[in-house]
Amino acid sequence: MNARTRIKICCISSVEEADLAVRCGADAIGLVGAMPSGPGVIDDQLIREIAASVPPAVATFLLTERTRASEIAEHVKYCGTNTVQVVNHIAPGEWPKLVEQLPSATRRIQVVHVEGGEALHLVEQYAPFVHAFLLDSGRPSAEVPELGGTGRVHDWEVSAQFVERSPKPVFLAGGINAANVQDAISQVSPYGLDLCSSVRVDGKLSHDKLIEFMRSAQV
Fold it and tell me: Any idea what the CATH number is for the domain that residue 152 is in?
């Protein structure tokens, strides 16, 4: 288990929210580009503005639904984030191209939506090309694809097996809150946790909920 579990606050929608997350101890923030569904979507110009405002020590994740290497790289370069979170499963041949086309300093994260044990087979497919994985509860194959922000907990037994198999760090997302965060850490042993709705009130980032979560996560 890691000495300290990293915390990523996703669905950041303004410079003020980014500042609040950083002041409360976030290690990373998530900025959501265009998506077919889910919360937190903002336009690329705002993503660029927020990313530029964040201190260098804090990771800025661009969540992109794009699936072609050239389009993902273009998205990242415009938005100016230091990390890209690929929320779709993309063709195996696209990842080597993406590695070549992204700036060398850009960190690469592949989301794996845990719909069952088949998620485990994706470790070997993506591991050579990514710096980390993020396990979420989306349903990419749904009629309206869900690529994150569902607020649902998936099967943590599968997630724990994924962590054991992965040679790269793994973030855990999906329905994590102050009440279950210690269970998530003890059952899965993730490198980091990713959350959105559980630290918001009426859609707005809450200082009190952030502090409550941070305290619960680092007990």
Answer: 3.20.20.70
